[in-house]
């Protein structure tokens, strides 16, 4: 087009639309009509950002502009991931799904980082979230085993978002052995996605039975923990002595055998379950049982220093407790157990 902008303005200072019509279609003309043509009284041209009231650019407003009409953060829909009762990592996963942010092969192609849009597990030509979580052979194998036959067709119908919303808001427990369905559904969906990633990146594949078993286990564990209200957790610990002269010593340890890394820690709480003092210590390279013993010993030293009258020791290692109790009547071969016995006698 060999003309300047001034050539496109008619003598009456309006756009020369007949000239425009030579090059652009009518729908574009409709948009140009509403734009005021350049005029000497308009002053110099300036670049402004119309998405903010101050006409200055911000990333926030640009993102809002891009999502305009497609995303309303105030919709009830977006509260689902944070309202349904499930482990936090699963909630976060569901949020990513609803935001359509999982890096499936289709999404990787869209972002210019993938070479194939096909599913790496079943070979389906398009691997999107709907395929991975619902329609892939790997996913179907799991859902088919869990969903009752008479409801299978309705389970598989609907868009991805409808499917997620329906199941995440369904708190039926009748067909899941007392486990909240929304929780189990979220965990299974997350597990299917993890399984897909393990297969793609590490060549590892879990069987359908393993996925179902571990998902049920997670859901059961979560349900049993969430059943204990905060009040109960604080005041009705098992075997908790109610007298206010008691304190409770909780100890535990962690060992990374391959890396030779071990640490122990614990805390002392009063008769109401309130925190009094805590401790943690790096132990280098030692066995699981030694870590438990050292945790108890550290805790006893801490308790002795503060002259508590009566205390209860709680640990998750039955082996450690049995070893301490067994050797109680004789001199133990283990230095740590001898020191624990010494401390126990001192505290009596
Ligand atoms: Zn597939």
From TrEMBL:
Residues 57-143 form the Reverse transcriptase zinc-binding domain. Gene3D superfamilies: Ribonuclease H-like superfamily/Ribonuclease H (3.30.420.10). Pfam families: RVT_3, zf-RVT. It comes from the Eukaryota. InterPro entries: RNase_H-like (IPR053151), RNase_H-like_dom_plant (IPR044730), RNaseH-like_sf (IPR012337), RNaseH_domain (IPR002156), RNaseH_sf (IPR036397), RVT-Znf (IPR026960). One of its GO terms (molecular function) is nucleic acid binding. Residues 250-347 form the RNase H type-1 domain. This is Uncharacterized protein. It comes from Gossypium trilobum.
């Amino acid at each position: 087009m060999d003309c300047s902008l001034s050539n496109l303005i008619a003598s009456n200072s309006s756009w020369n639309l007949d000239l425009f019509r030579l090059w652009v279609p009518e729908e574009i003309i409709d948009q140009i009509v509403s734009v005021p043509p350049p005029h000497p009284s308009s002053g110099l041209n300036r670049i402004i950002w119309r998405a903010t009231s101050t006409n200055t650019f911000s990333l926030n407003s640009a993102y809002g502009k891009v999502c305009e009409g497609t995303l309303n953060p105030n919709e009830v829909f977006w509260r689902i991931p944070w309202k349904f009762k499930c482990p936090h990592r699963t909630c976060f996963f569901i949020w990513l799904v609803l935001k359509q942010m999982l890096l499936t092969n289709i999404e990787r192609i869209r972002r210019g980082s993938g070479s194939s849009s096909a599913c790496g597990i079943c070979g389906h030509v398009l691997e999107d979230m709907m395929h991975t979580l619902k329609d892939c052979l790997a996913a179907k194998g799991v859902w088919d085993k869990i969903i009752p036959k008479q409801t299978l067709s309705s389970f598989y119908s609907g868009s991805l978002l409808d499917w997620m919303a329906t199941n995440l808001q369904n708190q039926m427990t009748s067909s899941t052995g007392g486990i909240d369905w929304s929780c189990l559904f979220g965990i299974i969906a997350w597990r299917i996605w993890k399984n897909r990633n393990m297969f793609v990146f590490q060549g590892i594949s879990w069987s359908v039975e393993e996925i179902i078993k571990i998902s049920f286990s997670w859901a059961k564990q979560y349900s049993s923990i969430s059943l204990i209200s905060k009040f109960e957790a604080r005041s009705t610990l098992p075997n908790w002595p109610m007298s206010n002269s008691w304190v409770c010593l909780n100890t535990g340890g962690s060992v990374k055998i391959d890396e030779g890394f071990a640490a122990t820690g614990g805390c002392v709480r009063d008769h109401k379950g309130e925190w009094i003092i805590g401790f943690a210590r790096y132990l280098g390279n030692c066995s699981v049982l030694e870590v438990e013993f050292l945790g108890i010993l550290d805790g006893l030293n801490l308790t002795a220093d503060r002259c508590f009258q009566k205390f209860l020791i709680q640990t998750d290692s039955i082996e450690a407790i049995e070893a301490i109790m067994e050797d109680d009547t004789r001199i133990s071969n283990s230095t740590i157990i001898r020191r624990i016995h010494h401390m126990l006698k001192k505290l009596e």
